[in-house]
Amino acid sequence: MSALPTGAKSKRNDVLLLLLGFAALAAVGVAAAWQLQRSAELNEQITRALLYKTDLIHLLSLVQDAETGQRGFLLSDDERYLRPYEVAIGEIDEALAGVVARADDRGVKRDRIETLKAALKVKLNELSETIALERAGKREEARSIVISDRGREAMNALRGVVGLIMARQDEILAGRVASAKLNDQRLLAIMVLGLLIAGALAWASQAVLRKQARSLAEARTELAHANEGLEAAVSERTAELTAANQEIQRFAYIVSHDLRAPLVNVMGFTSELDAARRTLKDQIDRLDDEESRRVTTEARQAIEEDLPEAIGFIRSSTAKMDRLINAILRLSREGRRDIRPESVSIEKVVEAIADTMYQQIEAADAAIEVKPGLPAIVTDRLSIEQIFQNLIENAVKYLDRSRPGRVVVSGRRVGALVEYEIEDNGRGIAPQDHERVFELFRRAGAQDQPGEGLGLAFVRASVRRLGGTIRLTSEAGQGSTFHLSFPAVLKSQSEGLAA
Amino acid sequence: MSQNSNQRSVVIVMIEDDEGHARLIEKNVRRAGVNNEIRHFADGTSALAFLKSTETTANGPLLILLDLNLPDMTGIDILGDIKKHDRLKRAPVIVLTTTDDKVEIQRCYDLGCNVYITKPVDYDTFATAIRQLGLFLSVMQVPDA
What we know:
The structure holds 2 protein chains of 2 kinds.
Chain A: H1 4-76, H2 83-101, H3 110-135, H4 139-147, H5 150-285, H6 289-294, H7 297-336, E1 341-344, H8 346-356, H9 358-363, E2 366-370, E3 377-380, H10 381-397, E4 405-414, E5 417-424, H11 455-465, E6 469-475, E7 479-487
Parallel strand pairs in A: 2-4
Antiparallel strand pairs in A: 1-3, 4-5, 5-7, 6-7
Chain B: E1 11-15, H1 19-31, E2 38-41, H2 44-52, H3 54-58, E3 62-66, H4 75-84, E4 93-97, H5 102-111, E5 115-118, H6 123-139
Parallel strand pairs in B: 1-2, 1-3, 3-4, 4-5
């Protein structure tokens, strides 16, 4: 688990790297879009320059057409030859307007346009003048105008200026084409860069994924190891506890046996002592009056009162000690008993206990009530029966005689546990005794009932053996409730603490 | 005890570490009218040494009263030892002990113990039991060792 912080750090780095990669890709995309836009603009400009050139050529060709028409008409004096002139004249104004209108946009100097316009005007005037003269039959005058070179010069000027404008357009075109080429190269570079970044990203992503998958697998393996270790530790601990528990059981067993042996002597020789006393007493009783008077009252009292009293105390004490030792033996023997889990209906158990206790319940003017919905349990039948037997007996035994007794057994299933409550309205247990009552040989409250203080100690030991817990809530004078909680299904005995 | 049928009277070997118990047992056996010699041993080692001595085996029939809780070895070990011994195995063994554990009782009978008696703590019961044992001993046939 110590790998976690560095793992988190490298993960953060991975994410950062990926984010950077995506940012770079986005930047490349934006750059490419911008370049494309620019490329389109350049192309547009190139197209416009070309169109302008076409327009100029068109204008020039119109003028030439007009001139051709004029020449033909002058030569033939046939109106039919004038046809090209008329067509051209009809279109020239429009063509000129187009060229003039886009002059600024095409970077054509205004004086050039003026020159163009002037030359055109001179040329058109020359043409219309000569045609008018020809129509008027003044052919010679018309020819002299033609020969005067006025028209030719105007035409030359026109060609010259158109040539200049065209050259300017070619210049612009060359610049734009170079730009477009550069632009395309840049676009290509950007595309290649984009592809490279995308490739790198894809590679980085799969590397990150693989790394994560690997670390995940490692973590899983580690976890599995840890789990195994944990299980081993738990079973080791359980084994230790079981061993310790068995040791305690054996210890209790041996101690109680060793305590029993001297007790046999105490009781035995007390009886021998009593027998000896009786012999003496018989002897004294058989004395006649004369002899009897010689026996002191102290001696008589010793034999008739003091010795029996002392012997009586020794007997009652040893009897009590014997009961206590038997209790310890019973506890330790119960701890050594095998636990055999089986399904037990607590409802039936409680009913059976209530039946066997009919006499006591009647005597105490009490009732035992089983709340519906008492869950069944899989556990050791004998142990659970003894637990309920002890608790219900206690409840009936310590009822408050001043009111009708009521013992309520309820229960419910809570997840993997079952909980039972045994509630009475008896005399209750003072708060300072809540823990004490579970201790061996300890009792609480008025000592007006027979008992050795074993029941609850036994109950708690049994509850623990069944993997459960027992808790007490009580208010002196109001009643007590014992809360039991057990696993709903007890594992087999080999896993028990004191198998 | 078998005095009528046997030339040599039966010796009761009592293996009991508690002097008090030994004395109480002896008293009550005597009260039942048993007058045989009682040899008392307080530990297993000396008891086994006595039982296995040639002198003892040559000296006629034995009856063994055995306590299970001994300081140097358990009565179970002694019982096993006796029942594996060529001549001793026929001697009746009465286990007289404080243990009333079922497993222990079973083990003793498995090993060949003849009677298992739990010492009652209550003396009246104890005395009665021992006296009845004494009566039982007085009618019991013991094989020659």
